[in-house]
Design a protein that fits this description.
The structure holds two protein chains of two kinds. Helices cover 74% and strands 0% of the residues of chain A. Chain A has 13 helices and no strands. In chain A, helix 3 packs antiparallel against helix 10 and helix 5 packs across helix 7. Chain B is built from 19 helices and 15 strands. Classes of the chains: A mainly alpha, B alpha/beta.
């Protein structure tokens, strides 16, 4: 008996969570996929009617804005947060005295809820209350910084707040990566008289490739599912200029009684996530098999 | 001590009586009236219900302007355990009826003569295929324009009776350095201004065709272009920081003289009154230019429930909701007017009197119309599609012709 238990214990322990994931993740993905092919409005219906929800989704200017915004926001957010994070990490890596203190400061935004970040930036970026009003108050009357209320720029205001929140975290990731590089190699390079920037570009950064990948994946899924930041910062406005797929889906499902539209937009979001994650998983698994 | 004993004895007997009585009216009520004045208003109904021997189970779900409550309702209905009564309004009552989950309360309605005391259009929302399925609570008027009396007097401006007058007044105010229109850039507020403009410029018949019947020719008409032209003008009359502002902050701008006008439903009156402002003296209320009356009627839909006690509770609840006493007390608290037309309005303020008179007149003249912006005229998907276009136009430099074309496409795409 004990022998049997010993043998099967790992399976027994894993079964409930495995079953849970099977039903609550994959089961509901399947359910959402099914509903996205129905004419569900207020309550889900199960008669398949083809791709009408997807046709509507791609005919909707609001979805077009939301989908575009995901790429603008996602692209800029990931790129700027990574560049800024890496830069901060390299600067912090110069063995400066107050490193612990500065590191904490940069990492702190991550401790805030995105709702807090959004609300704070909403005030900072409000032209009548925040930065613009302050600078104009100093006498620079022509200074304008109205991204938040300008429909063409508002998505960049969202990016700004997002980057502020996430770049400290990326910095911490990169800093850990920088520290894990074998110091002997670096010392050897320094002895050979190789300039510092070459050490970074040719030795340290290549050996940090897995960290880049992790940072990218974390930031990418933050970008695609980001919802609370937009809700707190702009509420999707002005108009629907800062709508993202997640806020579109929420509006359709919970405000407009349009479950079919919500399901189809959720499926598109999932496809986008898969498009990013699957190549990553594939390369990970392949390198493991080879390694 | 003796006194206490007798209270305890009475309490014990009441508890026992409660346990023995079987068909005691039960009602579980799902609503999202959780803030100050609204919560007080619901408490009135609860007390009345209890004094008639009923047991009230309160199910308040706050948040998201009812979105959270609707999510709760969906879960309850899907699990086959619907509440007795749910705060629902307009076409969503019909949507739930089509799901086959509403009850028939015609017996109560007929016994209490609802047909005779409710305006026909409003009664129409409460009926599902001819039988009564919901009880109206109040009538909010949407097409109000509020103004700061001092600001108007100082600039020699009267309440505008036409949109041209409004534009002239607004230009004058802007020249004097006052924001003509206090507005919050949230989609529903854009839609509120839009429907007031549409009613004023197009008239009741146009409004009915465009936003109730979704007639394509009307949606694409040149009148609709004119409506969007006026909206473009309105955009010029708001201040630079309007994006995302809450409606009550816009009301405060009118109150303290930063802005002159606000177009908002009569809940704005509550803000003025709460700040100690007097109607007719400190602030002015009038219908937006043009004829007609846009209503937003809160109501309780009755869901099909099992058991004599619950059905008795439902009937009692319906009777009390439309009863004179509740209609009066509730609406005094909430700032709206009673849905039934035979309630004495002595305690109400002049704005409410104007609202009640206009409602009676427009009911008679056929211009009593449901508000599209507040979910009375259309289902969520269609109303949302229109609002998307309205807010996209208002917040960009889109031309009126483009907006009209986009409007027709969006509506067609949402049907």
């Amino acid at each position: 008996m004990i022998h049997w238990l010993e043998k099967h214990m790992p399976k027994l322990v894993l079964t409930p969570s495995f079953a849970g994931v099977l039903v609550f993740v994959y089961g509901f993905i399947g359910w959402t996929a099914w509903v996205s092919f129905t004419k569900s409005k207020l309550l889900p219906k199960y008669d398949l009617v083809g791709t009408i929800q997807y046709d509507r989704l791609f005919a909707s200017p609001r979805w077009e804005t939301a989908f575009e915004n995901m790429f603008i926001f996602g692209g800029l957010f990931i790129a700027i947060a990574m560049v800024l994070g890496l830069l901060l990490a390299i600067l912090l890596d110069q063995k400066i005295r107050t490193e612990g203190f500065i590191r904490t400061i940069y990492l702190y935004p991550m401790a805030l809820s995105l709702i807090v970040t959004g609300t704070a930036w909403k005030w900072i970026l409000n032209p009548g209350l925040g930065l613009q009003a302050t600078v104009q108050g100093w006498g620079f009357e022509s200074f304008t910084f109205d991204w938040l209320v300008n429909p063409d720029k508002a998505i960049y205001a969202v990016t700004l707040a997002g980057v502020w929140q996430a770049s400290g975290f990326v910095m911490a990731l990169f800093l850990a990566g920088l520290r894990s590089v074998d110091q002997e190699i670096i010392k050897a390079a320094q002895v050979d008289g190789i300039p510092t920037w070459r050490i970074y570009t040719s030795i340290i950064m290549p050996s940090m490739a897995p960290i880049f990948m992790s940072a990218f994946i974390v930031l990418a899924h933050l970008a695609i599912k980001s919802f609370d930041l937009v809700i707190a910062l702009t509420g999707g406005g002005p108009g629907y200029a800062t709508d993202l797929p997640a806020t579109y889906m929420y509006t359709m499902a919970f405000s407009r009684g349009n479950v079919g539209q919500a399901a189809s937009s959720a499926m598109i979001m999932m496809v986008v996530v898969f498009a990013i994650v699957v190549p990553y998983l594939y390369s990970e698994l392949r390198s493991k098999n080879h390694g | 001590m003796k006194h206490f004993m007798s209270i305890a004895a009475v309490a014990a007997m009441t508890v026992m009586a409660a346990q023995t009585a079987k068909a005691e009216p039960q009602a579980e009520v799902l609503h999202w009236w959780t803030s100050g004045g609204e919560a007080k208003s619901v408490a009135v109904l609860q007390q009345e219900f209890a004094s008639r021997g009923g047991v009230w189970t309160d199910m308040p779900v706050a948040g998201g302007g009812g979105d959270a409550a609707m999510t709760a309702l969906r879960a309850r209905v899907l699990s086959g355990n619907a509440p007795t009564a749910v705060q629902l309004k307009g076409p969503s009552i019909q949507e739930w009826y089509e799901e086959g989950v509403l009850a028939d309360i015609s017996a109560v309605a007929e016994a209490n003569g609802w047909e005779d005391v409710l305006p026909a259009n409003i009664a129409g929302h409460m009926k599902c295929e001819g039988s009564w399925c919901a009880a109206p609570v109040n009538v909010h008027r949407i097409d109000w324009i509020w103004a700061n009396a001092d600001v108007l007097a100082k600039n020699g401006i009267a309440m505008p009776a036409t949109w041209d007058e409004f534009n002239a007044a607004a230009d004058k105010l802007a020249a004097a350095g006052i924001t003509p229109l206090a507005h919050g850039g949230q989609a529903w507020q854009d839609a509120t201004v839009f429907e007031a403009v549409a009613l004023g410029i197009g008239g009741p018949e146009f409004f009915q065709k465009a936003f109730v019947e979704l007639d394509m020719a009307t949606l694409k008409s040149s009148t609709m272009v004119a409506v969007f032209d006026q909206m473009r003008k309105m955009r010029g009359y708001v201040d630079a920081d309007f994006s995302g502002r809450d409606w009550n902050l816009a009301t405060a701008m009118v109150m303290n003289g930063e802005a002159a006008f606000q177009i908002m439903g009569d809940w704005a009156k509550g803000e003025f009154l709460a700040a100690g402002k007097r109607p007719g003296i400190d602030f002015l209320c009038a219908s937006t230019p043009g004829e007609g009356f846009l209503y937003n009627v809160d109501s309780f839909a009755m869901f099909a429930v099992d058991g004599a006690d619950k059905q008795a509770g439902q009937a009692l609840l319906a009777e009390l909701i439309v009863g004179q006493n509740f209609q009066k007390t509730f609406n005094l608290n909430k700032g709206s007017i009673p849905a039934r037309t035979d309630v004495a309005l002595d305690d109400f303020d002049p704005c409410a009197h104007a609202s009640a008179q206009d409602m009676a007149a427009s009911n008679y003249g056929g211009s009593l119309l449901p508000s599209y912006a507040h979910g009375m005229a259309l289902r969520g998907a269609q109303a949302g599609a229109i609002t998307d276009v309205v807010t996209a136009h208002f917040n960009s430099d889109m031309s009126s012709a483009d907006a009209v074309e986009m409007l027709a496409n969006a509506v067609a795409n949402s049907l």
